[in-house]
Amino acid sequence: MPYPTSAAEPYLLVADDDAPTRCFLGDAFRQFGARVVFATNGNEALALARNETFDLLVLDCRMPGAGAVEILSRLRNDPEANSSCRPAVASSAELDIQAQQSLLAMGFHAVLLKPCTLADLRGILALAAVGLRNVPVLDDGQALHTSGTPSVVQALRGLLRQELLAINQELDELALDPKGLEARLHKLRSSCGFCGATSLSEHIVSLQQHLKLDHRGAMLPLVDFRRSMQETIEVLPIE
Hints:
Layout: E1 11-15, H1 19-31, E2 35-39, H2 42-51, E3 56-60, H3 68-76, E4 88-92, H4 97-105, E5 110-113, H5 118-125, H6 129-132, H7 140-147, H8 150-174, H9 178-195, H10 198-212, H11 222-235
């Protein structure tokens, strides 16, 4: 029976037709504090992902019924699916660099090569953070606590809006420069803290995690990050 999501524990779907792999992944993720639901084939995984809201999908590339690519494609094209926009990881024992890059370009947030280590899984679990938290686009209470007065918050948010507009235009170019992107994200995360831009701050954390995993260019989850930036821009004051 699937678990409900909670604010304290990531809720994961692990889909793999190999029983020892399911056992290892499940035990490891639970050790790190996650709740795990298993699927043994593609059809079962697709049904679960449509009916449940997971914080992270870990999908084997080769399973009876459907593999990771087909499952993700069908979910992304099904707006009624509860996990249609959730972070997804493709897992496989046989993938060269080109195949890994192709999977990431298709929209997977990461690729998990098997056999894997506990350290690998800890890094993968960090990708569930954005899906885990239901935070507001702007948190006025946090902004006032950090910056002091409404007038200061208003001024800082105006500056943040200008910064986001600039980054939005430069994002595709920045994606090809990991060091440059990392530097911009570091400054942007600080600005978000002063302005109470909590949702965007969560997406920045996710993007920084990907950079630590050496994902580049199309491999980065830029669609989610850009969407969060645009949502934030819409609610920030125009000067």
